[in-house]
Amino acid sequence: MLSDWLLCSCYCGRIDGTVSHFMTGAGKSMVVYYRADGSLVHIAPEPVEKEEPLFTAICVGDASRVQELTMRLGTNLMLPSKPGWLAIHQAVWYGQEACLRVLLSAQPGMINKRTECGESALLVAVSKDQLQCVQVLLENGSDTDIPNYDKETPLYKACERSSAAMVAALLNHGAAVNTVCIWRCTALHEAACRNSAEICEMLLKAGAKHNLPNMYGITPLFTAAQSGQLAALRLLLKHGADINSQAADGATPLYEAAKNGHEEIVEFLLSQKADANKPGKTGLLPLHVAAQRGNYIIVSMLISATSKTRVHRAGISPLHLAAERNRDDILEALLEAGFDVNAQLSEERMRLYQDHRSTALYFSVFNNNIDAVRMLLAAGSDPNLDAFRPLMVAASQSCIQTVTLLVEHGADINASIPTHLTTFPAVYMFSMKYLPIFKYLLDHGGHAISCFNCVYGNRPHPPIKTMHQRRRTTNTHDRLLRLLPRGRLF
User: Fold this and answer.
1) How far apart are the C-alpha atoms of 373 and 403, rounded to whole Å?
2) Which of 291, 232, 308, 239 is nearest to 264 (CA)?
3) How distant is the alpha carbon of residue 467 from its chain centre?
C-alpha cells in the first residue's frame, strides 16, 4: 500500500495538519493520517459514502423500486443527494425514462428545479442526448428556456449536440431561438459552427436572426466561414446573411477563411462576390494573411481579386510577409502576378522592426534564404533601398553567396549608415571576421584608402553621440557600431 502511495500521481491537501487525500495512478481515492509531529500513522482507501436507495434504484432503472420508495412515508423528492442534484436529474442523466415518469407523477413540482450549475432536468437530458427523456419532460410542461449559469439554453445545447430531433422537439414546444449565452452567441452560431444545415434551416424558419453578432462582432455566417462549414455557409447566404460582415477586429468571412486555410470556402465566397479588398483594423487584406500562412492555392485565388492600390495603402506588401516566412512558392506567384518587388514598408510598419527594414529583399537576406534572394534580385529588386543595407546583413552572416549576388546586382559596397557616419564603407565593419568576404568587397570596388583616414589622427576620439544612443537602442548593428572608432579601420 505504501509503495502505491509513493508511486501514485497524487494530489495532497493537508487538513488540520492530520489528514491528506490523494489518488493512486490506478484512480483509487486514498486517505493518509498523520500524527501532530507530521509522522505517518496510517493509509487507507477513502471512505465511500453510500448512495441513497432511491438514487441507486434510478441508476439501475428499477422503476418498481422507485415507485415503492416515492410512496414510502418520509421520502422527500426535493431533497438532493449532493448540492442541487435531485432524483429527477439522476433519472435524465442515466436516461431512465420509466423512472422519470414515476418521479414526475409523484412530484410534478420538481420538473424545473436546477442543479448547483444551474441546469434544469431538461438541459441535463439534452446535454446527455437522452431524447426520450427530453420528450417526457416537454410533455409534462418543462420550461424550454431555463439556461445554466453560462446562459446556455436547452436549444443551444441541442445545437451543440447537432441533434436535429431534439432541436425539433424544443422548437415545437416554443423554445426561444434568439436567446444568447454569456458570449452573446445564439443557437444559430452553434449550428453554423457544426455545419448542421438541417438545424440551421429549422432555426431560421423559427425566426432566428442570421446577422445577430456575438460579443466579438461575429455573425453565424462568419462562424461558418471561420470553421470551414460550406453547407451552413451556403444556407445562410441563401437566407440573406451579409457576406462582407465584419467582426469587431474588422475581419471579414473571406479574411477568416483565408487565414484558416479553408480553400473551398474561399473559392465559394469569391464566386459569390465577397470583397477581397476590405481590410481589417490592422490594414491587412485576405491576400496578406494567405501569403503569411503560406497557402499557395488560396493566394492564387485571391491575386486576381485583390487591388494593388489597396495593397499599397496597407503599408505592407504580401511579398514582405511571404519573404519573412520563407514562403518561396508564394513569393514566386506574387512576382509573376506583377506585385512591386521594390515595395517598401510604411514608416509605421518599419518602426515595428529594430533595424527599420523596408524591403522584401531585406527579409530574405536576413533569413539567409539564398533562393529567395536570387528570385527577388532577378525580378529587379533594388539592393540599396534599406537604410541598413542587405549587403551589410549578408556580410555580418558571413554568407559569401548572398554577398556575391547582391554585389552582382548593384549593391553599393561603399554605402554608409545614416545614423553612424564613418570615413570608410560601413560594410567592412561586418566582414572583418570573414576575410574572403572582406577581400571580395575590396576587389569589387570597395574603397581601401578611406580605411586609413581619420580626422583625429592618432589623438583620442571623442565619444560618439547619436540619436540611437540617446534612445538606448538595443538592435545588433547599433551595439556593434558603438564599439567601433568613427575614423580609420586599421
Assistant:
1) 10
2) 232
3) 39
Per-residue pLDDT at 117: 87
Residue 52 is predicted with a pLDDT of 82
End-to-end CA distance of the chain: 77
pLDDT at 490: 30
Closest by CA position to 21, among listed 44, 50, 51, 2: 44
pLDDT band at 12 (very low <50, low <70, confident <90, very high): very low
Q: Which three cell numbers stand for residue 212?
A: 445577430
pLDDT band at 34 (very low <50, low <70, confident <90, very high): confident
Strand 19-23 relative to strand 29-34: parallel, antiparallel, unpaired? antiparallel
Residues 265 and 230: beta-carbon distance below 8 Å:
yes
pLDDT in tens, 437-484: 888 888 888 776 666 666 666 777 777 665 555 454 444 445 444 433
| Burial readout 465-482 (b: 16 or more C-beta within 10 A, e: otherwise) | ebebeeeebeeebbeebe
**Domain limits, the chain:** 2-45
Q: Give the separation between CA 335 and CA 373, rounded to whole angstroms.
A: 13
Contacts of 426 (CB under 8 A, 6+ apart): 389, 392, 415, 416, 417, 420
- pTM of the full structure: 0.79
Over the stretch 257-285, which tens digit does the pLDDT of each residue have? 999 999 999 999 999 999 999 999 999 99
* CA–CA distance, 432 with 478 (Å, rounded to integer): 16
Q: Are 389 and 429 in contact (CB under 8 A)?
A: no
Burial status of residue 10 (CB atoms within 10 A of its CB: 0-12, 13-18, 19 or more): middle
Residue at 151: amino acid letter: K
**19: β partners:** 15, 33
Sort strands 29-34 and 40-45 into parallel, antiparallel or unpaired: antiparallel
Neighbouring CB atoms inside 10 A of 83's CB total: 8
145 Cα distance to chain centroid: 32
> What would the pLDDT profile of 160-198 be if each residue is shown by its tens digit?
999 999 999 999 999 999 999 999 999 999 999 999 999
- Give the C-alpha separation, 242 to 200, whole Å: 16
